[in-house]
Amino acid sequence: MPTVDSDHHAIEMRVVVLGGASTALLAQLPLREGSLTLGSLQGWRPTMVFRGYGVDPWASDGAEGRDLETFLPYADGLILTDGLAGGAHYSSTAVERLWRSLGPNQRGIPTAVFGFHALAEEWQTLSGVEPVAIVDPRPEAALSVVKAVAGALLRSRLRSIPPPPPPVSV
Description:
This protein is α/β, with parallel strands linked by helices. It has one domain (3-158): P-loop containing nucleotide triphosphate hydrolases (Rossmann fold, 3-Layer(aba) Sandwich). It has five helices and seven strands; from the N terminus they run ββαββαβαβαβα.
């Protein structure tokens, strides 16, 4: 669940970006230290913090996979990417392992696909949930996939928080 700082009217949403086009996607975003500050929303300042991982974080020595598994319980959203060039397509094994690594309460977190329909179909088959967006992996489309995840996070995670009660008159 996004971190809400009521004192500073700030919301921090953490997003895992996984797959062959992770680096290309993140390179197209105006990030500052891995974060993207969104516009003000009813007096609140939402920020998205991204953590990118390659095609298969568990491959080779597995250090990247261990880092992903450590970060995953704090993730609020996912962007699955498919490569822009040969050899950078998604790994079915990594997608399945990502699904297994999600806790039961996280399996419905907003997920978008910056890639092709095969990846979206595989994720939907595993999760039973349709991605919030499927965007062709073109550099100019990077911001649209981020907007889709942000919109879904803000709607699904914050809508159910009731407003504070009105002040009591004495």
